[in-house]
Specification:
With 144 residues, this protein is an alpha+beta fold. Helices cover 30% and strands 28% of the residues. It has 3 helices and 6 strands. The strands form 2 sheets. Strands 1-2-3 form a 3-stranded antiparallel beta sheet, with no helix packed on it. Strands 4-5-6 form a 3-stranded mixed beta sheet. The radius of gyration is 17 Å and the shape is globular. The termini are far apart. 21% of the residues are buried.
Amino acid sequence: MTASGPEKVVYTATAKVAGGRSGHVKTSDGFVDLDLRPPVEMGGPGGATNPEQLFAAGYAACFQSALMVAGRRAGIDASSCEIACDVSIGPVGRAYGLAVVLTVEVPGVDETQARELADAAHAVCPYSNATRGNIPVEIVARAG
């Protein structure tokens, strides 16, 4: 199976890192300009962001947008939903792997509707599509 990208590219984000996990990241537009440090839990000094936090932030933001689209399609106002994204890293054989837990809270709906919206968002979210089949992604859906 080959990967397929977008039919038409509408935006490309560019970030440059120098120094790896103990370095610095900056986007081409300068909006992200951050030091990177491994967390204390991984034997690092902490005190700065790390790739897992950046991935969690991006996935949560993208998933929330996808959930709001799913809500509009279902006639449900999901604009006050909240998404928490936990990105875990740990050894997988001789390498390292990631795992994700997305916790979705949708006020004003019941548990069944929250699950349906979360599943619909997971079907269209670009981060979900990129990770599907590559890392474990668990979705916890809660009514608000």
